Amino acid sequence: MMKIRVSFVLALLLLSSSFFLQVARCQSDSDSEDAELVAETVEEGGDLGIVDDDVQDFGIGNYSPAPGVETVCVFPKNPTKLVVAGQETELLIGMKNEGDQHIKVLAVHASVHLPFDHNMLVQNLSTQAFNNASVPSSVQATFPYIFAVSKFLQAGTFDLVGRIVYEIDQIPYENTFYNGTIEVVEAGGLVSIETVFLVSLGISLLVFLGLWVRGQIQNLSKKTKKGPKVETGTRSVDASMDEWLEGTAYTQSKASKLKKKK
């Protein structure tokens, strides 16, 4: 029974580990596709513009996206999206203009929310305004955005919502270039929850594997210690059988044989 239980737990852990590896692989593939698209925008060029020190209120969150405008986001050299509290983190925004008109990029803004409820705002990040940033028709461009979450923010998983505001023919529009999770860690503690989980899972697998091997060795040693069964050549008669046959011809003949032996 113990062997069946250990085997079941081991199989369950293996299935869970394969699931997380598959999720991680899918996430990595998605990030690589975004990175390729951003790389294409860098190769094709585009005016990155100048970051303006005078930050204005662009009414972020009040505009709809323009047709024919696509945006993607990638965290360069940070595929796990690990954000250290109080330190700057850089991301790249790729914008593709498939429309017929010129795009004037105004600003980039982001905010941090609780993952289970985006109405619960954790922090408004800095607004990065651009001056003379443009994306002509049928052109792709890349825009950097550097942000930093509060150093007092508790470590954990949060949702980052990033938006880019632009104008087409003096009409403001807005695209959400990123709406996903980030892992916030304290400065000096770069161990994420996923890392702790994977390490714990690996240790558990090693422990259960050791228990299974130990059980197999114990079963093998027990089998080798058991010797062959030796027959004595005489048949023992149960005492209850003697009581049941007491007074019969069987017991009398047995008594006479004993007297002859004496």
Q: Would you write up a description of this structure?
A:
By secondary structure, this protein is α+β, with helices and mostly antiparallel strands. 36% of the residues lie in helices and 33% in strands. The protein is built from four helices and ten strands. Strands 1, 3, 5, 6, 7, 9 and 10 form a seven-stranded mixed sheet that branches. Strands 2-4-8 form a three-stranded antiparallel sheet, covered by helices on one side. Helix 1 (2-44) runs antiparallel to helix 2 (193-225). The longest helix is centred in the first third of the chain and has 43 residues, at 2-44. The radius of gyration is 38 Å and the shape is elongated. Residues 1-6, 8-35 and 37-55 have low confidence and may be disordered.
User: Which word captures the global form?
Assistant: elongated
CA-based gyration radius:
38 Å
Span between termini: 55 Å
Q: What is the beta-strand fraction?
A: 25-35%
Number of helices: 4
What is the mean pLDDT? 74
Largest sheet: 7 strands, mixed
Number of separate strands: 10
- SSE pattern: HEEEEEEEEEEHHH
pLDDT < 50 runs, ≥5 residues? 1-6, 8-35, 37-55
Helix share of residues?
25-40%
Instruction: Indicate the structural class.
Output: alpha+beta
Brief descriptors of the model:
262 residues, 4 helices, 36% helix, 33% strand, Translocon-associated protein subunit alpha, transmembrane
